[in-house]
Fold this sequence. Notes:
With 312 residues, the protein is of the alpha/beta class. Helices cover 37% and strands 21% of the residues. The chain has ten helices and 13 strands. The chain is globular and about 50 Å long. It starts with a helix and ends in an 8-residue tail after the last helix. The structure holds zinc ion (ZN).
Amino acid sequence: MATVALERKDRIAALGYDYASQPKQALTSCNLCSASEFVILTHRDRYGYPAQAHACRRCGLVFLNPRMTVESYSRFYNGIYRPLVSAFHGRLIDARTIQDEQREYALERAGFIRPFIANTSARTMLDIGGSTGVVAHHFAREFGLKGTLIDPSPLEVEQAQRLGLETVTGLVEEHDFGERRFGLVIICQTVDHLLDVAGTLARVRQLLSNNGLLFIDIVDFRAAYLRTWSVEAAVKIDHPYYLTEQTMAAYLRSSGFEVLRSDYAADHLHVSYACRPGTANLDAMPSVASVDELLREVRFVQNTAHDSRLKA
Ligand SMILES: [Zn+2]
């Protein structure tokens, strides 16, 4: 175990990525509820980088703070992200190798949204953070949609272009779609990577046609730390946000989405949601009891952890 951890540490060190010196911004108000009282949960991420995860004391939203700037993240996705994940897992993960996994994911998720597609008149689809386009391509073919994809990684967008999708290289927070509306918006394994979840969901609500459908999924933060019994192992600089069922439900309701169905994925880690436009309910925040429960559970896991990987 110690050897495995050391080899991993060496592989990550060999990348020469200096996280500590990347330009960052300090967040002073919660992206979900605007409160300003935070609890610092962790001081290092799973790679060993000095990244703090904070929890909002009022709503339980967990996020990196301080956090890299838009420019730092753009550089990160242009050449660091996949090599870093490869170094962590000890096998090559790149724009080509991830496609098999994405095909499998596309098949499974198409089954989840199929019952709801029939109720829309969707002709167009926007895939936010669509990576190599495998999922968008599959959905477009399966449901007869014209697909558009936006992603910050040039290498992955290049793959998506080959699949005949309209592509945008960039971040959805930065891109102006003008008056365009989409019948289906999908945000697959992406929301945790966003820099502004509330802003993106508000944007999506505008981009979605009146009877449109939103598909979105999260890595359930609680599932992530409970499966490894380590909060640090669930934190990584690639994820500015760490969502739970409570905080995601609050995000969706407060952004004007009504959840039609949610699904605990077979991997026991992701939770998916099919949503339609509804009325925004800004009072739909997680309860004080649920925040207390989250903090108590985090503390319990930290105080009973046997995980030695991060100490190596
Ligand atoms: Zn909050």
